[in-house]
Amino acid sequence: MFDLVDILKTKSDAKPVTQELITTVLFYQTQECMDLVEEAFRFEGLVSPSMLENSDQNIQQHIRDSQISVVIVELNQSSNVSKDMERISHLLPNEASVIVIGSEDAISTIRNLKGMGFYYVFWPIPKQELIDFVRNVDSNRKRNSGLGKDRTAKKVAVWGTKGGVGATLMTAEIAYELSTKKNSSCLIVDHDFRGGNLDIFLSLDKHEKKPVTRSSITASLDATYASSMVKKISGMLSVLSIESEELNELELKEYARTLSDQLSGQFNFILEDLSRSSNCKQDLNYISEHSDILLLMIEPTVSSLREAKRVQKHMDIMSSKTRTVFVLNYTMPENAATITEVDIKSYLGKSADVVCPNDPKLGKMVLDKKHMYEMNSPVGRSVNRITYLLLGQNEQKQKKSIIHRLLKRGG
Questions:
Q1: Does the record bear Membrane in its keywords (predicted)?
Q2: On the chain, which terminus has fewer CB atoms closer than 10 Å, C or N?
Q3: Buried b (16+ CB within 10 A) or exposed e, 145-160
Q4: Model pTM greater than 0.90?
């Protein structure tokens, strides 16, 4: 007997169809790309990506708001895809896989993006091919394979050519600016294992270094353990600061770098504070092989300049690919300096990349827990210039972009 009630009941008990979820965001430049991505996802039954216009401001504001698996960046209107991706790479979380869509049909573009840990697809691309590519990238991410797993922090070594030249203070200021204004996650590695003033410059109260024993070195060391040794200052800024009654400084230095290597996939930047009291020749060997940037802090004195020359010569002998940024910090009034900026250029063969003027109120500012990078002053702007150099950004272009956005809002 035909039973309509049973048929309806069977249909009502059927499980609802759930959409396949790959948490994705698209930063688009053209309507054509946005329409194709949306149609491709909808046609395949995938949850559509969040759609945002491709701008540094949008990426900075929205990329870390949720757990995103795949980031798609359209650069069809870019004149240099590699440079544009290098410029915004610090805004992208390392745990997300990144697909770049562009119209540059060049092997060098693919190679450059691969070196940065990004996938590249050539535009125009069929809808089915795009979806297959996205699924493959997401599968690689879940299996911890593919390009995403190789994207690690950019390493910056801040080297003080003598004690009191400002290496620790500059490390703290740069880290704060990168993490608060540039939306880049940062880890500071403290290389002063006996004391130091990093906690003061970071405005930390009751800061204690993590104790390390000889037995802990032989224990299983993975990213989870390394994370337990880190102190979180904010959601985007952390510090690795250790001490030991059993290990000497060279052993602690090696251990700190082993920990930071385990953590490199979790941060955009790792900054090593190497003030003059805690650096040595072995550090230069490490920097020449493993660091992306050497920030060389000098002051206008003969001893500081001679040390800078020694460091420069060592890096040349090592044929290092590490980029050196010279920062001249006036720790004394300009009229009390024993050498001039002309002397520095003559001796080093180049001018200082950034000059930090003397500010007699700096000490009080630090004790009042204020930060240089936030100040609209000559010393504050010098910190901003260093940050621009680390990010590979053009300071004038960034200022014009900010002015343009402000005018646009006003209109």
A1: no
A2: N
A3: ebbbbebbbbbbbbbb
A4: no
